[in-house]
Amino acid sequence: MTTFRIAPSILSADFARLGEEVRNVVTAGADIIHFDVMDNHYVPNLTIGPLVCEAIRPHVQVPIDVHLMVKPVDRIIPDFAKAGANIITFHPEASDHLDRSLQLIRDNGCKAGLVFNPGTPLHYLEHVMDKIDIILIMSVNPGFGGQSFIPQALKKIAEARRMIDESGRDIMLEVDGGIKIDNIAAAAAAGADTFVAGSAIFGKPDYKAVIDAMRAELAKVTGA
Question: What pTM does this model have?
Fold first, then answer.
């Protein structure tokens, strides 16, 4: 049986009351808090750093999943681990030495993973699967919230699922970008088990209603 996880992205939350927002979304049924870090260098936007991660850590018991859209990555990894991250992912284009960056995350006590943009091939995984705990497939180009899902991502999700299954390893398969009630089942059917949703949850008045509706869609998928 597949364990499905909902991971609301705080990029779409109300930053003026972020502690309250993360508490509310966890109470509404979130499994993970997704934490988007952008540097105005690797991506054309600037968001939040380790201090914000440290600030929200006492408010929730669920894992904090830090997605680093920064270049380079190695310098900032220990800071986020110290700030309370449980999972840290980064883009292969942002590291000169994937194996070393993945090991650095693990050495700092976090689960490690790679993130794949719509135009980035999965071949980077071939020699580092032994250090991978999570694969994140971007279904939008990174840098901004509120974008529309790119359907081609479903093929990449299916390819990543095949690679995970062939590896025999317990690796989470996450999808991020434009995930909503009406497409979450398609992403799950392709092989994803963890779903990042920003504006689809935080943009609505009733977080629990949205998360419940997403789970209802996931329950329709074989293996749910």
Answer: 0.96
